[in-house]
Amino acid sequence: MTAHSVGPLQPGGPIVLIGAGKMGGALLEGWLAGGLDPALAAVVDPGLPPDAKAAFKRRGVRTSPDPDTIAAPAAVVLAVKPQMVAEALPVAARFMAPGAVLVSVLAGVTATRLAAGLPDGAAVVRAMPNTPDAIARGVTGAVAAATVTPAQKALADALLKAGGQVEWLDDEGLIDAVTGVSGSGPAYVFLLAEALAEAGVKAGLPADLAGRLARATVEGAGELLRRSPETPETLRRNVTSPNGTTAAALAVLMADDGFAPLLTRAVAAATDRSRELAG
Ligand SMILES: NC(=O)C1=CN([C@@H]2O[C@H](COP(=O)(O)OP(=O)(O)OC[C@H]3O[C@@H](n4cnc5c(N)ncnc54)[C@H](O)[C@@H]3O)[C@@H](O)[C@H]2O)C=CC1
Ligand SMILES: O=C(O)[C@@H]1CCC=N1
Q1: pLDDT of 82-129, one tens digit each?
Q2: Quick one: which of 75, 194, 255, 262 has the most CB atoms within 10 Å?
Q3: Rounded CA gap, 265 and 250, in Å?
Q4: Is 66 exposed, middle or buried (0-12, 13-18, 19+ CB in 10 A)?
Q5: C-beta separation of 103 from 19 below 8 A
């Protein structure tokens, strides 16, 4: 389901975003594009450049609010680096009015760790979105702690769906692998575009042409995958003429030491790192 299938975002109270960097900023853009009243959004980020702060103010989004001036936040969304959690969690705690839900997108940081820094019984949702959230084409894996009420889960769902598709998990243990597949995944696809361009240069193309061809190929293949009911395997086979050029390339990519085992190792490394960040 996408942002556009859920109607204007009406959280029933302010949303406080703590950390408005690449991921937090993408989430906020999704909420505003999803119809959130800017007057209900507040950003806490001491590292915001002055021009970004001014731009938020122009759009009616409050920055650096005093917790006492935000009446009953409906949700506090934590999007700082995992290494900053000890510093940022007490800030989040000050905004956590009774009934508010904390939504954390921090890689590795467990719901138990988050709850330990919040008022007793606080509702915690742990989520792993990805940066295509900025264009409502993200995908998020999320898990709700036992303390989260159905209404709080519905609000977290709406906030995350403003960025795209949401997959709710019953088992928090799965979120490390979700991070390895879809949280970090856009970087793998961008690397594919980079590597394809480099390979094109090595095959004799001018660099700018190779860059344009590689980018358009990744974009087009992604869009075809989105629009087509076919599986990725069928779409791949549709490109592959018997004994043709694609078959020659796939013999390399699908060899025992090819793309799949390489990606398996990459996803395992990301998953392991997510577990390590849990401390
Ligand atoms: N970038 C990505 O693709 C994804 C990131 N995440 C998670 O999102 C979180 C943020 O990552 P990015 O946005 O990439 O990092 P970032 O460095 O772009 O953003 C972090 C923001 O937090 C701010 N900040 C630092 N200390 C703060 C504090 N005490 N209070 C309030 N704000 C503070 C910084 O000024 C910065 O703007 C991480 O925990 C990461 O695991 C999750 C999914 C995808
Ligand atoms: O690289 C990271 O740790 C974060 C989590 C998923 C994407 N970026």
Answers
A1: 999 999 999 999 999 999 999 999 999 999 999 999 999 999 999 999
A2: 75
A3: 19
A4: exposed
A5: no
pLDDT digits 0-9 by tens, 124-150? 999 999 999 989 999 999 999 999 999
Flag whether 180 is in a domain: no
CA distance linking residue 261 with residue 258, whole number of Å: 6
3-state SS class at 236: helix
Determine the Cα–Cα distance for residues 90 and 117; give it in Å rounded to an integer.
Answer: 7
Please report the atom of ligand 2 found closest to the CA of residue 107: 5
What is the token pair recorded at 95? 């905004």
Residue at a domain's end among 175, 197, 215:
175
Angle at 27 between CA 3 and CA 82, to 5 degrees: 140
From the CA of 82, give the closest atom in ligand 2: 3
Residue 126: both structure tokens together: 């742990």
Please state the domain count of the chain: 2
CA-wise closest residue to 99 among 64, 61, 63, 150? 150
Question: Do 197 and 162 have their domain in common?
Answer: no
Statement to judge: residues 140 and 12 lie in one domain: yes
CA distance 57 to 110: 33
ipTM (interface predicted TM): 0.99
Question: Do residues 168 and 190 both lie within one domain?
Answer: no
Are 146 and 9 in a shared domain?
A: yes
